[in-house]
Amino acid sequence: MNKAFLTTLLFFATSLLLAQSKSVLIISTNVDSVGSNRSGTYLPEIAFPFKTFTDKGYNVDIVTPLGGKASIYEAKVPSELAQIRDSKAFIDKTNNTLSPNQVDPAKYIAVFAPGGHGQFFDVATDERIASIVAKIYEAGGVVGTAGHGTASIVNVRLSDCSFLVAGKKMTTFPSWAELKWMNISNYGKLLPFDMADVIKRRGAQIIVSTPETNNDRNFTNVVDNANRFVTGAFAASAGWVSEEMIKLVK
């Protein structure tokens, strides 16, 4: 085997490892409504992490159960959020998401699940996406969720058949907040399950804010360094989650 061939082989191997270390997968949904209410993935929860990852030099792919256009909804859109929403990179990725059979888990060093409500009705029961998340994690990848993004990973099982969330220190959008604030889900009545209840039953070391501790970041922003898990309880946590995920990747 000559030196030139070995040099070329080393170059391609290094390029492959670099590509893996610089790729993040975001999970979105194709479901655009809950009952008669517009829903999907909540724009701030996908847009701000998208910008964080791309600004740090990471390639970002987005997967949905059907591929194609992601269902994304918004409420108030400040100028910073509008700039991300209207950027070519964000439009290209959200209009042309990958279907699960187009995703090679070996490419990704991290996977992030933003909130909204759409994923309760497609992602949560998609065994292909669950398998992708499990493979990324078991290969040493970082997992992050924000708000209702927990719904995307409640059914993920690892190769030993244990649930991904088992033993993880994590938070999620609180049940009391669903009942109090979320008119989109008719205050939880339209949802097929309660995230906090499910992950607790599946062995998560759950930390959830109460109305009294709602402004305490110890209850709303949780990093489990040992298990490469970052979770935020609310939409406002999404940018923070992506920043902490990058720290764990490094």
Protein architecture, described:
This protein has 250 residues and is of the alpha/beta class. The protein has one domain (20-249): Class I glutamine amidotransferase (GATase) domain (Rossmann fold), CATH 3.40.50.880. It is 36% helix and 16% strand. It contains nine helices and twelve strands. It has a six-stranded mixed beta sheet with strand order 5-1-7-8-12-11, sandwiched between helices. A two-stranded antiparallel sheet has the order 2-3. Strand 2 and strand 3 form a beta hairpin. Helix 2 (43-55) runs parallel beside helix 9 (238-249). The longest helix is centred in the N-terminal third of the chain and has 19 residues, at 3-21. It is globular. The model is unreliable at 5-20 (pLDDT under 50).
Any idea of the CATH topology? Rossmann fold
Can you count the beta strands? Answer: 12
pLDDT average, as an integer? 92
* Highest-level CATH class: Alpha Beta
Distance between the termini: 35 Å
Write down the overall geometry: globular
CATH fourth-tier homologous superfamily: Class I glutamine amidotransferase (GATase) domain
Strand arrangement across the biggest beta sheet: 5-1-7-8-12-11
Overall number of domains: 1
Rg from alpha-carbon coordinates: 18 Å
Topology order in helix (H) and strand (E) letters: HEEEEHEEHHEHEEHHEHEEH
How many helical elements?
9
